[in-house]
Amino acid sequence: MDFEEKTLEENVLYSGKILDLVKDKVLLPDGKESFREIVKHSGGSAILCEKDGKILMVRQFRYAYKETIWEIPAGKVNAGEDPTETAFRELEEEGGIKADKMELLFSVYPSPGYTSEIIRIYRATGLHKSTRHLDEDEFLSAAWVEKPRLAEMIKNGEIKDAKTLIALLVALF
């Protein structure tokens, strides 16, 4: 059976700085019509940065959850920007680290039921100290965390961010 749904109409309900909200009318595989509400997002790049048995982590308040969480460095892909360039930019902005190379490990769909966002997870190598330069509305701290401590944090539920959990599972196991 072909499971593809065909778009009949697209209605943009909201267009914002980081996302658009659309309500599409679709044709289902059985010939019936339905609606899909989708958050359109340009995607992001996340960076697994490892040195001397430690992984670079950031702590940042995330308003949607009303809590400060642990994450690997990451950021939104800007319009017209290559996701690899986003990874280089975000590693320096958030971690104060320049990398010689970014290797794409994999891409993840964080919530395929309602968003088009794709997060690409990279491994940074050839690391050099640089200067952090956060966006003017960005407040976070960066720290190198030992791998055994990260494993404990995962088991204890201290790390909740999906992209970070996936990247750390690759790094730890």
Protein architecture, described:
It is a single chain. With 173 residues, the protein is of the alpha+beta class. It is built from three helices and ten strands, in the order E-E-E-E-E-E-E-H-E-E-E-H-H. The strands form two sheets. Strands 4, 5, 6, 7, 8, 9 and 10 form a seven-stranded mixed β-sheet that branches. The protein has a three-stranded antiparallel β-sheet with strand order 1-2-3, with no helix packed on it. The radius of gyration is 18 Å and the shape is elongated. The mean pLDDT is 96.
Task: Summarize the entry for a quick read.
About 20% of the residues lie in helices and about 45% in strands. By secondary structure, it is α+β, with helices and mostly antiparallel strands. Helix 2 packs across helix 3.
Radius of gyration: 18 Å
N-C termini distance: 37 Å
Number of strand elements? 10
Helical residue percent band: 10-25%
Main beta-sheet annotation = 7 strands, mixed
Contiguous uncertain segments of 5+ residues: none
Strand content: over 45%
Average of per-residue pLDDT values: 96
Please tell me what the overall shape is: elongated
Order of helices and strands: EEEEEEEHEEEHH
Structural class by secondary-structure content? alpha+beta
How many H/I helical runs?
3
